[in-house]
Fold this protein.
Amino acid sequence: MAKGKDVRVRVILECTGCRNGVNKVSTGISRYITQKNRHNTPNRLELRKFCPYCYKHTIHGEIKK
C-alpha cells in the first residue's frame, strides 16, 4: 500500500521572545521538537514552554523546517 501524507507530523517550536529580539541578553534561540495531528490542528501550533535563554515561560510558535 502506498502511504499518503502522514496524519501525525513532527513540528519545531521556537521561542518568539528570542526570535524577535525582545531579550537582548539571550545568547541563543530555544527550540523544542514535538508532534501534532494535522486533522485536529490544521493551523500553526503555539505552546507556552520554558525558554532557558529568557529564563521564563514564553510562547513558542511553530516554524517551517
User: Anything to note?
Assistant: The mean pLDDT is 85. The domain at 7-61 is CATH 2.20.28.120 (Rubrerythrin, domain 2). The radius of gyration is 14 Å. Strands lie at 8-15, 31-37, 46-51, 56-63.
